[in-house]
Design goal:
This protein has helices at residues 8-14, 27-36, 95-102, and strands at residues 21-24, 41-43, 49-54, 57-63, 87-91, 109-117, 122-128, 134-140. With 141 residues, the protein is of the alpha/beta class. The strands form two sheets. It has a four-stranded mixed beta sheet with strand order 1-4-3-2, with helices on one face. Strands 5-8-7-6 form a four-stranded mixed beta sheet, with helices on one face. Strand 7 and strand 8 (134-140) form a beta hairpin.
């Protein structure tokens, strides 16, 4: 499947298992954060939509406007971070490198510096994206 040219109908029918749609105010900014700070690959990027890959795992970014006919936007805050209560974990992503890149990315916030979490056997950091989602890059100790 060519992620740059597939149409929405064919892409939707290709999805299986669990997928995530993250609603964001600015798709391009969030996609830049995911690509530049966390090293994810971004496809079909425009003002309203992006396909994002972490390895073989797919998730989607949608603008608020693209969900205008959906009931979910009525639950979103007018301002401030989104995603409270959810951690998006990226296992096998270097937390030290991601934290370093986050320090120079406008709108990213390092919530927890890289640290060894021996109880979980991981080294991890917590980085808030421009949209307010908590991303946790981690590596096995």
């Amino acid at each position: 499947m060519n992620l740059e040219t597939i149409d929405a109908d064919a892409f939707g029918r290709s999805m299986t298992g669990l997928t995530l749609n993250l609603l964001v105010r600015d798709v391009r900014r969030e996609a830049a954060f995911l690509r530049e700070v966390l090293g994810l690959s971004v496809h079909r990027l425009d003002a309203d939509f992006a396909i994002v890959l972490y390895g073989a795992q797919v998730f989607l970014l949608h603008s608020d406007a693209s969900y205008a006919a959906h009931p979910l936007p009525s639950l979103l805050p007018e301002a401030g971070p989104r995603g409270g209560g959810i951690e998006l974990r990226l296992h096998e992503t270097d937390p030290d490198a991601a934290a370093g890149r986050a320090a120079t990315f406008e709108g990213a916030t390092l919530l927890a510096s890289p640290a060894d979490k021996t109880a979980h056997g991981l080294r991890e950091a917590v980085i808030l994206s421009p949209a307010g989602y908590a991303w946790v890059p981690s590596r096995r100790l």
